[in-house]
Amino acid sequence: RRKIAVMTSGGDSPGMSGAVRAVVRSAIALGHDAYCIYEGYEGLVQGGDLIKKMVWEDVRGWLSEGGTLIGTARCAAFRERYGRLAAAKNLILNGIDGLIVCGGDGSLTGADLFRAEWPSLLEELVAKEELSQDQVEPFKTLNIAGLVGSIDNDMSSTDATIGAYSSLARICQAVDYIDATAASHQRAFIIEVMGRHCGWLAVMSGVSTGADYIFIPEKPPGEGWEKQMCDIIARHRRLGKRKTIVIVAEGAIDRDLKPITSDYVKKVLVDVLKLDTRVTCLGHVQRGGTAVAYDRMLATLQGVEAVRAIVRAKPGSPSPMIAITENKIIRKPLVEAVKMASVAEAIKNKDFDQAMKLRDAEFDEY
Ligand code: F6P
């Protein structure tokens, strides 16, 4: 009988609660004990009441919920060795030997580091007499599995992260609302969307709403983009379009890594095309609300698979990240996935081809 814990970490996303539900229930259904670690890595470091044994009914109604009902936090202590030592001790004191982390690339990188350090953490705990050799003996290996939860869809080794499609739906709904007022006044709207270093939400919402122009971090526009954008928008207007929608990813930059701000894009449209222009920053609205059907399905199937991966792990086998590729739920080595998540690094080095490659995307110039 295993003791399997689940936690959510980093920015919340719709579907995280559904993933927790799936982990708790499939652990119990397979005859194991299920635990929730509240408030992300903070709960792991602090222990006590933040680590709670769960029963079947505890997660009733969680499937459709937005956000994460077990809380999340950005935890500074876990980034330091002393925090990870406290976390290891709390897991052992609770008898937990399987940990499922649902979070973005930063949270999964933390999980992978924790796994790699595990033997040395135990040694240090014994050396410092925080735990006895007998206490650590049964916990020689800690099985970890990663679930990717983030609205950004910024993990390259999986087609979709839990929450991305809910956020996309929310953005499309907001743009539809704006469309009505924009067309009434023949206005232009610059709509800023989240995504950190990832342009997925911007690209997909642009495609889904028929936006006129899109800015993303991975493919900064070349010099003279202002004229190109204005020419395109002017052509659309000549074709009879009564409104203009430009989507700007929050991480949009030019080729010198200078941010392309919504206010600057607005200024260009006002100065060059004399369009009556407004800026709408969607903010955290796009992270809230209930999970769409796709995220409920993804969270459930991946939560079940994460428990299976923990239960069936062979000693010494690498920690898996649960992915979806070409509609199949599969396991990938967490360490590889985390390595592949270094798009921000590629952008910082102005290696935009590599950034696109890491996103499994290639766009032809047209
Ligand atoms: O990673 C999810 C995300 O919503 C990003 O899109 C955004 O950059 C960031 O989190 C916002 O973080 P916070 O909620 O801490 O302001």
Spatial sequence of strands, sheet with the most strands: 3-2-1-4-5-10-11
Helix/strand/pairing category = alpha/beta
Number of DSSP helices? 13
Global outline: elongated
From the structure above, extract its key features.
about 375 residues, alpha/beta, seven-stranded mixed β-sheet, four-stranded parallel β-sheet, about 45% helix, binds 6-O-phosphono-beta-D-fructofuranose, ATP-dependent 6-phosphofructokinase
Describe the structure concisely.
The chain is of the alpha/beta class. It is built from 13 helices and eleven strands. The mean pLDDT is about 95.
Report what the structure shows.
- With 366 residues, this protein is α/β, with parallel strands linked by helices.
- The protein contains 13 helices and eleven strands.
- The strands form two sheets. Strands 3-2-1-4-5-10-11 form a seven-stranded mixed beta sheet, with helices on both faces.
- A hairpin with a 2-residue loop joins β10 and β11.
- The chain is elongated, with a radius of gyration of 23 Å.
- The model has no long low-confidence stretch (mean pLDDT 94).
- The structure holds 6-O-phosphono-beta-D-fructofuranose (F6P).
- 6-O-phosphono-beta-D-fructofuranose binds next to loops.
